[in-house]
Each structure stands twice: as C-alpha cells, then as structure tokens.
Amino acid sequence: MKSRAKHILTIIILCVLSLTTSAQTKESKEREELLPYGNFDNWLVRIIDESFIIGGGTKYLYEVAPTDTIRGDIPYKSSPVSPWRTSNVLAHVSGITKCSVSVFPEKRDEGKCVRLETLMETCKVLGIVNITVLVPGTIYLGEMMEPIRDTKNPQSKLNAGIPFTKHPKAVVFDYKFDAPDKDHRIKSTGFSRIKEIPGRDSCELYIILQKRWEDEEGNVYAKRVGTLVKRFWKNTPEWINNYRAEILYGDITWHPDYRPYMRLIPEEQSLYCVNSKGKSVPIKEVGWAPIGEMPTHLVFRASSSCGEAYIGTVGNKFRLDNIRFVYDE
Q1: Mean pLDDT, residues 298-322
Q2: 198 Cβ partners below 8 Å, 6+ apart?
Q3: What residue ranges do the domains of the chain occupy?
Q4: How far is CA 154 from CA 87, 148, 181, 257, in A?
Q5: Which CATH architecture has domain 34-328?
Q6: 155 near 144, Cβ under 8 Å?
Q7: What's the pTM?
Q8: Which of 36, 40, 44, 320 could form a disulfide with 63 if both were Cys (CB 3.0 to 4.6 A apart)?
Q9: Which of 209, 196, 129 is nearest to 162 (CA)?
Q10: Pairing mode, strands 170-178 and 96-100
Q11: pLDDT recorded at residue 226
C-alpha cells in the first residue's frame, strides 16, 4: 500500500513539473520589441525665440529623435527614423511667434525618460490676441502640421498614426505618475471662459490598431482591429517597472475589461490623417474588425491628462520609459 501511494505521489509530482515546464516554455516563446526610440535616451532640441511683443524669450522644444539641435523659427518635419512627435509646438497667431512646451527629457539612472506635464499656456497682447489654453503633455506616433495658427479642431492639426502590419499581444513599459489631489478639472480652449469640469483627471496610454482604406473622393475609413486604453489615477512615488497591459482584438464591447472610453471613435472626435491627395481628412471608424484581421496603421498616444482636448488638471506629471511590444514567437 505504501509503495502504491508513493508511486501515485511520484506521478502527481511529475505532472506538476510537466505543467510548470510547459508554462515556462510558453512564456519563453514570447519576445519583446522596443518601439523605435522608445527608451527616450535621444532627443532633438529646437531653440526658438518668441516674438518681442510677448517678451522675446527663448524656448527649448524637445522631440524624441536622433540627438541634434535646430535653431530658428522653423516648422519641424518628423524625423525619417523616429516615428514620435510631441505636443511641443511652434505657433504663429496674428503674426506672433509663440511656442508651447509640455514634454521634457528627464534623467533616469544612466539614461533618460520622458516627462509629460499638464500646464497652462498664455499669449496676451493688448488689442491683438488674448489666449489661455490648457495643454496636456503628449507623445504620439505620427506628424504635426506646423505652424499652429489657431486652437480650433486640434485633431485636424495631426496626421495620426503610422503604417503598421503586426499583431502585438501586449505593451510593456515603465511609468510614474504624480497629480494634485483634486476632484475636478479645468477646461480652457483659449477663446472662452475658463470652466471647472467635475471628475478626477488621470494620465492615459492609448493604443488602437486600425485597418484603413480610402475611397475615390479621398475619404478615409477604418475598422478597429485592436484596442488598449489604460488610465492611471493613483500617484506612484516610485517607478512601476515592466508594467504589462494586454491588447484586445476584435469587438471588445462584451469583454469584462471594456470601458466606454474604449469605444469606436465618434465622428465629432475623429482622428485625422493626410489622404493620398495630400489633404487632411477625418478617419471615420465604421466598425470592429474580426479577430485575425491585419491592421494597416498603429495609433499610439500617451498623455498627462485624459479625455477631450483642453481639459485636464494643471500639475499632472506622467513619466514613461522603455516602451516595447510583446509578440508570440
């Protein structure tokens, strides 16, 4: 009897070891790919003098790109090797040169990370212009149409997303978040009264994979292939390293992790892209793609505030580092 019990116990142990080995083998078959320049160790610096009429100060605008320096009031074209752009922009408003800076490099260990801040930008010249705008710090994949000339329809100033034909299963990154203890946000568009909006602000990391196509008139449509939207409310005094978030594919409205802000993008909030005719047009999301559909474009955005443009909490700071995708071997 003892011999039989010992034999059964041996079989159980072998089964457990087999399952453990199988799980380890499965895990070992994953691989990670760093997004180009996703360790934020390299930065291009733009040095621009603002107009004398608003003080003539010198501003430093930072871009995630090969290390370089550009001097002068020159609209920036995205780097041919780095897909990133930032919310640091050059504006020409009523003949006035003004810069907005809300994204910064920051030293971390032996390298650097990116720091995104929500702040207020003001441009006041008696009798000419009087603008106060809330600006969240944002990095994204795509292009910015500089110089900016107004605050109307901010999405139309962007060429959102980059060509992409892969199926990553997850994204992994390091992050740190600091925010004031406030249960309301501010809305400031530049041309209307500053308002308080109820609800606590959060930082956000936003990924959507789309299959896009264009009709004969140049209209661009898309089906949603993959979705990931993570919002962080809690302050993290220390870095959270190797945070992993899964990308969901297909129609996710049934999924237990689905939230309303993961929905298809409504028409009034459409992202924009440049079509084959060179015109900036809205991307009309028309449905969910079936699981297994290959995407054509990747939209990736991280911001120190969430939700609509010009709404957030001044003082939010969202730090990111080492952004990479996870794939099955």
Answers
A1: 94
A2: 183, 184, 185
A3: 34-328
A4: 11, 9, 28, 29
A5: Sandwich (2.60)
A6: no
A7: 0.88
A8: 44
A9: 209
A10: unpaired
A11: 98
